From TrEMBL:
Region (Disordered): 116-142
Organism whose genome encodes this protein: Paramecium octaurelia
Keyword Coiled coil: yes
Protein name in the entry: Prefoldin subunit 2
Coiled coil: 71-105
Swiss-Prot/TrEMBL keywords: Chaperone, Coiled coil
Lineage of the species this protein comes from: Eukaryota, Sar, Alveolata, Ciliophora, Intramacronucleata
GO cellular component terms, semicolon-separated: prefoldin complex
UniProt biased composition (Polar residues): 131-142
Source organism superkingdom: Eukaryota
CDD domains: Prefoldin_2
Length: 142
């Protein structure tokens, strides 16, 4: 959506409706950010667990806890990593559920206040204006 169309759309709404819409979008962005961070953290835990799975469980290793390196046995570290991974998965599911709920709320708000029809009309017009590529014009670059 173009900036001018967005501004025109917002003129038709009251200040309270605009604030509520922006609040919902901001809330969605914050939850999405946290969800992405959790997913990245899960990937890191999985990488570490895969890297240390074939190592002797009695071997000593070093783990950073609160900015301090602590010597532990690999077995203890694996257990705590698995527990952390389970917690991250639960938190990720909770944030994913919350994110989907806010997306539904945002969509419902947009439909109620007629906020998105211009974008849908524009995309349909753009699709109609795009010429269909023929096989004669397509080539292989070497």
């Amino acid at each position: 959506m173009l900036q001018s169309e967005y501004q025109e759309m917002m003129k038709n709404l009251t200040d309270q409706q605009v604030m509520q819409y922006n609040k919902i979008k901001q809330n969605h962005a914050e939850i999405s950010k946290v969800y992405i961070e959790i997913e990245n953290e899960k990937k890191e835990h999985i990488l570490v667990l895969d890297a240390i799975k074939n190592i002797d469980s009695k071997r000593r290793c070093w783990r950073m806890i609160g900015g301090v390196l602590v010597e532990r046995q690999l077995d203890d570290v694996q257990k705590s990593l698995k527990e952390n991974l389970e917690l991250l998965e639960k938190n990720g599911q909770n944030y994913n559920t919350a994110m989907k709920q806010i997306e539904k709320e945002l969509t419902q708000y947009e439909l109620t206040h007629n906020l998105r029809p211009q974008q849908n009309q524009q995309s349909q017009q753009q699709q109609q204006q795009q010429p269909v590529a023929s096989s004669k014009t397509q080539g292989v670059l070497t």
